[in-house]
Amino acid sequence: MLTVRETVASPSRIGLDLIAIDKDAPLELDLRLESVSEGVLVTGTVSAPTSGECSRCLTSVTGHVEITLTELYAYPGSATEATTEADEVGHVVDSTVNLEQPIIDAVGLALPFAPLCDEGCPGLCPDCGVPLADAEPGHHHNRIDPRWAKLAAMLDDTPRGEA
User: What pTM value is reported for the model?
Assistant: First the structure.
């Protein structure tokens, strides 16, 4: 058994469109590698800082993600390697295991699909694009429903009885 506790730089941007672990961000590895009859069992956690933008108001969002890994890497010539597809189980190659794809997969599942800066984020004004959290109270625009626009154009702006 071997215990690995170290911090490495992220080899690439890992995550989703709106939030991810940036390239070269520190990945904290706390792993345990055990030799089992069919290969190497890797268990442990990987944690890293995340950054992105709010899905409602597009402001910057930072956070932290921690994932738990449990992966089996088959020894060359083992029964596990012979009875599984190439992409079903990892393989020990030259006495090393590649953790990149399992980390990418687990981070993708752990991150929120629509990150928010705050649970109550009101988003952006659909008319002018200003963040509603920063807008004055009662922010609105007097818009006429397009279905009634022709009728509104027929209205005279002069109040009745003043003609």
Answer: 0.76
Give me 90's structure tokens.
């990892």
Q: For 31-46, how does the pLDDT look when each residue is reduced to its tens digit (9 = 90+)?
A: 999 999 888 999 999 9
The proportion of the chain whose per-residue pLDDT surpasses 90, expressed as a percent, equals 53
Q: Where would I find the H helices in the chain?
A: 79-83, 100-110, 149-154
Rounded-to-integer distance, Cα 8 and Cα 17, Å: 23
Same domain, 19 and 93: yes
Q: Which residue has the tokens 């190497």?
A: 40
- Rounded-to-integer distance, Cα 42 and Cα 70, Å: 6
59 and 90: one domain?
yes
CA dist., res. 4 & res. 28, Å (int): 10
Alpha-helix residue ranges (DSSP H) falling in 60-139? 79-83, 100-110
d(CA 132, CA 56): 10
Cα(25)–Cα(10) distance, integer angstroms: 5
How many CA atoms does the CB half-sphere of 109 hold within 13 Å?
Answer: 8
